[in-house]
Amino acid sequence: MGMIIQGVTGDWEVVIGLEVHAQVSSNAKLFSGSATEYGAEQNTQVSFVDAAMPGMLPVINTAAVEQAVKTGLGLKAKINNFSVFDRKNYFYADLPQGYQISQFLQPIVGEGILTIDLKDGVTREIGITRLHLEQDAGKSIHDQHPSMTLVDLNRSGVALMEIVSEPDMRSPEEAAAYVKKLRSILRYLGTCDGNMDEGSMRADVNVSVRRPGDDLGTRCEMKNLNSVRFIQQAIVYEANRQVDILEEGGKIDQETRLYDSVKGETRSMRSKEEAHDYRYFPDPDLLPLQFDDAFVAKIKADLPELPDEKKDRFMNTLGISAYDAGVLVAEKEVADFFEDVAKGRDAKLSVNWVTGEFFGNLKRTGKTIATSPVSADALGEVIDLIKDGTISNRIAKEVFEEMFDTGKSASNIVEEKGLKQVSDTGAIEAAIDDVIAANPDKLAEYRGGKDKLLGFFMGQVMKNTGGKANPGVVNKLLKPKLDG
Ligand code: ADP
Ligand code: MG
User: Fold this and answer.
1) Closest CA to 27 of 66, 57, 77
2) Measuring from atom 17 of ligand 1, which residue has the nearest CA?
3) Distance between CA atoms of 182 and 187, rounded to whole angstroms?
4) pLDDT of 348-385, one tens digit each?
5) Residue 151: alpha-carbon gap to chain centroid
6) Mind listing the domains of the chain with CATH numbers?
7) Residue 63's Cα: distance from chain center in Å?
8) Distance between CA atoms of 227 and 231, rounded to whole angstroms?
9) Which pTM does this prediction carry?
10) For residue 217, which atom of ligand 1 is closest to its CA?
11) DSSP 3-state of 267
């Protein structure tokens, strides 16, 4: 599954590690009571603490701590009952404190594991190094005044979880699968909304290349990528850039690079020599975080079923394939919808209808599950009508499209349009007789050994009955008649 770049001098393997910043879903900031709503008017969600007015003191938001612990448990990680907040000192116009409160040597969450889902139901485990809590900075706005930079402090102090992976990924696809799986888990947990286009999840991407089997090469880090597509593009570009340098006998400078998504290339921002010395030290305004096992146990007891466990359950108790189960559980909304449809019904048929016709019609009509005119119960009724022989599978698809377009129920449409499947043998026999009488030459060919014509006759009978004949009954009656 790894990405190998073939150079003139031999093969190169790509190594990737990700640092993801995920905004904690919480009504208040990490150390103040200010609101965190997205898209609010600039500088309307800023307390004296967030603006770093002299003498203001941070107060830890317990809800944010619980969210971090919950996320750690969701990542099957070690929870550290003792952790410390540090000051990371640097100057930036949108960082009024002159430092960011973060965690350095003693983070709240230690090592964990994330299982990524690759093609054809293949999975791989990626190591999580740590998760720590920190504050977000404000935002500098350069394009609203001809000669000044404006600052919006709404984000200042918002709680972030920085989730650091081991350098365990080997291809852009694996990095994409990692980000998607992490986002899925965060959404299941309700600890981050995962909306990358709103900045609630962004990734720093570390890339190096090496000869297969060698030690790790020198890495470059690309900051703040906010879409899965950009992450993949940046990795491909960066890995090839590094291979070109190494192939020419050069060496990689460890540096921070910027990915320009318009030009599709990375550019140097600063090298290791210019790297900041952040002068970390424990924040004297904050006590260490300390909790007992009972605190962690309570959060653990309230954890929802996560995508991996749901996938196992779908496979083991419903007999669904690894691939289908993976598709269904990726988004909780889809998994819930599917479970409502499948309740008391044939699982395989339910999977096919949800991932096939239902997704297809959502796409056709530009709807989502939330805005779908067809509910899980309404789709369930279609499946029931197929199962009890009222309509054929083919008619059901037509009915389903009409349900999307009109919002009517399946039974209403079947009733109104007279689409009930005909299973009455007398009527079907009559239709078969008509078809045979109208095609004497085809009948002769069939009887002369051209077995394939069975399909032709089948099609004609279905056509003659407006698609309403029960295919099972037609099948049973047709052959003896053709054979004479
Ligand atoms: P720092 O503390 O300087 O940020 P870390 O050792 O914590 O450095 O690593 C940061 C990220 O870089 C991690 O996600 C890690 O997996 C990744 N990483 C470290 N070494 C490499 C490497 N040689 N190639 C690719 N990624 C790497
Ligand atoms: Mg780092």
Assistant:
1) 66
2) 17
3) 9
4) 999 999 999 999 999 999 999 999 999 999 999 999 99
5) 32
6) 4-299 (no CATH), 305-417 (no CATH), 425-483 (1.10.10.410)
7) 25
8) 6
9) 0.87
10) 23
11) strand
